[in-house]
Specification:
Elements lengths: L4 E2 L5 E2 L7 E4 L2 E4 L28 E9 L4 E6 L11 E4 L17 E11 L2 E10 L9 H5 L3 E2 L7 E9 L4 E6 L13 E5 L13 E12 L5 E8 L9
Antiparallel strand pairs: 1-2, 3-4, 5-6, 5-8, 6-7, 8-9, 10-14, 11-12, 11-14, 12-13, 14-15
């Protein structure tokens, strides 16, 4: 690592620590650091470009971490040493088999999955694919959470309005409700917030949207805020996805 040296102004400097590199076929790439990120476990899943996987083989495991609005997380396989250099495998929302409006996973859920090799900027990596329940069933979590919501006018009542904007990077947007509604005991604000999980894009991740006519339900959070529920296009059509 070398010795610290005295520089101008009495400041010290020290040579940077050399970082590890991996050989992948004919190229050298910087090795990812194990154990980085939230949650316990090693997340390294970089493999040589010639590494073979059997995409039809099924494994079981537990969802160790999952960030719903970011749309990714990690699964810890029940079987050890199936991921070279790591004890967890990366999972993306697009690989979740689900009938929910927005596919996602919940921490500590038992799942079944396959492993696929993907190319990320010239680097071969492993990630989970075709994630299902332990017996191969679709994963559904929204019905349970929907049943706990307090709805304005009931779960099936639909309102109309204009989606002023939705930003997929921040995971939220706002809807301006059309005039003329009687909310009964509720004093609903003119604009309500909509979040990623309530953008009904037919199982796709919502795309950026502006000034779009929509239909939706309204629910009230425990803190008294009003939010949009199951937002669709006019006539119940799916919103633009990506």
């Amino acid at each position: 690592m070398g010795f610290a040296a005295q520089g101008k102004g009495g400041k010290t400097w020290q040579p940077a620590v050399q970082k590890p590199w991996l050989k992948t076929q004919n190229n050298w790439v910087q090795a990812p650091q194990a154990g980085k990120g939230k949650g316990k476990g090693k997340n390294v899943s970089t493999v040589p470009a010639g590494y073979k996987v059997n995409p039809s083989k099924r494994y079981t495991g537990t969802v160790t971490n999952y960030w719903k609005f970011k749309g990714y997380g990690f699964i810890t396989p029940d079987e050890a040493n199936i991921i070279p250099g790591a004890d967890r495998v990366f999972v993306h929302w697009k690989d979740v088999s689900s009938s929910d409006r927005f596919p996602s996973l919940v921490q500590h859920t038992q799942v079944q999955f396959s492993i696929q090799k993907v190319d990320e900027h010239g680097v071969a990596k492993l990630r989970a694919s075709n994630i299902t329940g332990p017996s191969g069933e679709e994963l559904t979590f929204q019905d349970e959470s929907d049943g706990k919501k307090v709805y304005v006018g009931g779960q099936n009542l639909r309102y109309t309005g204009k989606l002023k904007f939705f930003n997929p990077k921040t995971g939220f947007g706002y809807i301006e409700i059309d005039d003329g509604y009687d909310y009964g005991e509720f004093t609903v604000t003119k604009e309500v917030r909509v979040e990623t999980a309530e953008m009904n894009c037919g199982g796709s991740h919502p795309a950026r949207a502006n000034d779009l006519q929509v239909e939706f339900g309204i629910w009230q959070t425990k803190k008294g805020a009003f939010k949009a529920y199951n937002v669709t296009g006019s006539g119940g059509t799916h919103l633009p996805g990506q």
